[in-house]
Amino acid sequence: MRVGYVQTAPRFGEVERNLCRVQALMSIHEKVDLWVLPELFVSGYQFVSRAEVKELAETIPDGPTTQQLIRLAQQQNSHIVAGIAEKKGGYEYNAAILVGPAGLLSHYRKLHLFAEEKEWFSPGNTPFPVSSIPVTDSLGKSFVKIGIMICFDHLFPEAARTLAIRGAEIIAHPANLVIPGYGQLTMKVRAMENRVFTVTANRIGTEARTEKRLHFTGESQIISPCGDLLVSSANDIEDVQVVEIDPALARNKMLTLNNDLFADRRPEFYFH
Ligand code: ACM
Fold first, then answer.
1. Which CATH class is domain 2-269?
2. Cβ of residue 177 lying under 6 Å from some atom of ligand 1
3. Predicted TM-score (pTM) above 0.90
4. Are strands 103-109 and 91-100 parallel, antiparallel or unpaired?
5. Of 117, 151, 169, 188, which is the active-site residue?
């Protein structure tokens, strides 16, 4: 199957412009089974008030960005994971969705909020989601399991572990990473310790809407279940990358002939 990501430089609050930019970058490649887009990819990241979050947040699945992504998935016969500011019942969440030609498949609200996100959003209240998407290749139609976590979730190994134990073969990781090197390193480890593919779609650029200047670190990447870097981007350019992967590799948890990384776990000795 073909998996890709888009690395952009969203302009804060310019929702239509940011969506158009992502669509233009996605149109460079055809026949991509799964796209991953950054966290908060249409709104931008650095809110200055809860009122501003309320203004830019959208409903899921009825809001314009989710609906446009579903149309795009239908046109391209593809599936798309993307990060969106969500509003629901008087609360705002840092959310991510998986959509396809059939509509909304997964919906996740970020559990581990980073820094000022704790002022802007309510903490997530949805489990880590895993959904199957159909993939057709020369051998016919099969299903691949896609898990979702968002950015700072990368520093909580339980996030990727939970997704992998639920069967995720590919972990989609929309991100707005700001600490240089952290997420790129931890996601490599998350891929190795769970023997799954990880796709981190990060953004670039700077937001300085308060006295705190945020610089986003780019270096989006796709990692194999063995920890190999299959593709990555620079830290200062918009980019789109697509690679061919064999998701069946993520079903084999054997590290050595004697070590199945999942069967070897000793949960009876954990968290006591
Ligand atoms: C982050 O979670 N956006 C750093």
1. alpha beta
2. yes
3. yes
4. antiparallel
5. 151
